[in-house]
Amino acid sequence: MPENNGSDVSIGIDAAVVADHKVAIRGPGIREDFGVAPTLAGLARLTKRLSPYAGSLVIAEPTAGTWIPLAAAVADAGCEIAFVQSRHSAKLRQAIAGRSKTDVIDADMLARSTSVFDMRAAPPLDPVMLGLRRLLTRRHKLTVAAHRVECRLWSVASWGFPDVWRACGGHQVAQPLLRRWPHLGALARARIGSITDVVAAHSRDRQPQRRAERIRAAAAGWVGFWEGRLDLDIVAWETTELLDDIAAADERQHQATDKTLTQWRTHWPDDLLLTVSGVGPICAAATRAWWGDGTRLPSAKAAGAFVGLNPSNWESGLSEAPSRPITKEGPPALRLAYYQAANVARRRDPALAAHYRKLRVERRHTHMQANCAVARKLAARTWAVLNTGQPYQHRDLDGNRIDEADAVDLAESLAVPTDIQRRTRASRRGRLAS
Description:
By secondary structure, this protein is of the alpha/beta class. Helices cover 57% and strands 7% of the residues.
């Protein structure tokens, strides 16, 4: 075995789920290629083969969950590990090898990627944070799945009875309404008082009876339109199936949420993060899962970049494209948590409310663009609270301290005018945008 060459040696591992991990070791006068199985024996062999290179940096793709045992085996060898996202390594491989792809090529490319990417060693595994990440990742997938079913219901409504959907004003009223009257004919014959009760229970409409009248009239109109053209019994069956899928998805999501919050409260019973406007239990749990105590990130700007909320850059010659889409480089569960938390924070924090208003009114950003910008500022604030160890203090626009109630009143006074909201907000809304 060669002597330890420290930083002169780079190691790439093309991780596999069922096949062997391919390992490439590169350095002055060193070229080793071998494979190890993703088993206990294989990981022990990997640790033994890497031990002579203790202090070296190992580059791997975080394929599925294979990075977890790999990181432990690499640490046992005295090496550090860093990760390259699959989408980035795929572009690098295409530039180097064109359309050719093998596990050996991938391992070699990863070993040489330190000359292309600014690679930093990943922090040591923390069992508590790792477990919380798994819970939040599962919850995120269930949230997305439930949102997709809601979109399928909206898709049926958009061609089958769009006037009914519009009269409902979205999912919050439409779902309980269709749960009770999935057949358009039954909805068209329902009592106005019964429809009014559903509208009043699931909305803040000041005149629920007027909305109920519009809903029933729209249903009757579509019943007449589809007469002899469409079997409304089939549409009612499909609507019921989709509503059942949504209910099942909601139940699974609630179970994942309860498990996540139990784990979070066990280890952070009085979490300081809850003092930040807009940051609730889920956002606080996601922050702890990926940031821990915040010392893993060097600055507030790095915190926003880690979440993937920084705008991407595009510049060529004399051309420049400002206000580019966000990078989306970070964990999706963490990014969604901050996006949804920002939607609350902009209604409760004066500075964030003013920033949101400026982007919507002066720069004519959409709600999604402006809310992403607020989420980036919220991530910076959360990082600051973690690193100072001090609770967040509400302030007015001049920086003076105020209590929470005054902060909420001031933020509400800075709300975006209704006409501007209608101009730029998308008509379809779901749980991911709320």
